[in-house]
Amino acid sequence: MNTHQVNTKWLGYMSFESTNPGGLIKMDSDSEFGGNNDGLRPKSMMLASLAGCTGIDIASLVEKMRAEIDTFTIDVEGDLTEEHPKFYHTVRVDYNFYGSDLDQTKLQKIVDLSVEKYCGVMEMFRHFAKVEVRINYFNQ
Questions:
Q1: 73 φ, ψ to 5°?
Q2: This model's pTM is above 0.85
Q3: Sorting pLDDT into bands at 50, 70 and 90, what band is 51?
């Protein structure tokens, strides 16, 4: 079994610093909630984690499947419930591929593999949110 661990330290007010195997993450809240707007927001970091997880899959699969792209971006947007505890009930993931000769069939397969098989964060999200996926192609 593989176990992950982080340590989080309170820095005062609404500010925290958390360890991560790759470095430190500073978190804070909006000023309207007593924070100083001096760090990342925990819920938004969940969306970034989803983008990072699937992005790593995509980058690896693009290389393995020799897909020709110039670059890609991932936009993730989440809708929160109205009641506390507020959590994402719907999440939209847009994959944006840029290139001069995009193989849409191959890129669709790459995204499907990440979404359906490899991305553990995507699977976690599916346990509490509806996840909508869209692929956009931009010829350059």
A1: -130, 160
A2: yes
A3: very high
Q: How far is CA 139 from CA 21, 32, 71, 136, in A?
A: 37, 42, 11, 10
Q: What is the pLDDT of residue 16?
A: 97
Which residues have a Cβ under 8 Å from the Cβ of 105 and sit 6 or more positions away? none
Residues 82-108 pLDDT 10s? 999 999 999 999 999 999 999 999 999
* 66-71: long-range pairs with CB below 8 Å, 24+: 67/103, 67/106, 67/107, 67/110, 68/99, 68/101, 68/102, 68/103, 69/97, 69/98, 69/99, 69/102, 69/107, 70/98, 70/99, 70/100, 70/140, 71/98, 71/99
Element (H, E) at 23: strand 23-27
Tell how far CA 77 is from the center of its chain.
9
Q: Quick one: pLDDT band at residue 63, thresholds 50, 70, 90?
A: very high
Do residues 57 and 50 make contact, with C-beta atoms less than 8 angstroms apart?
no
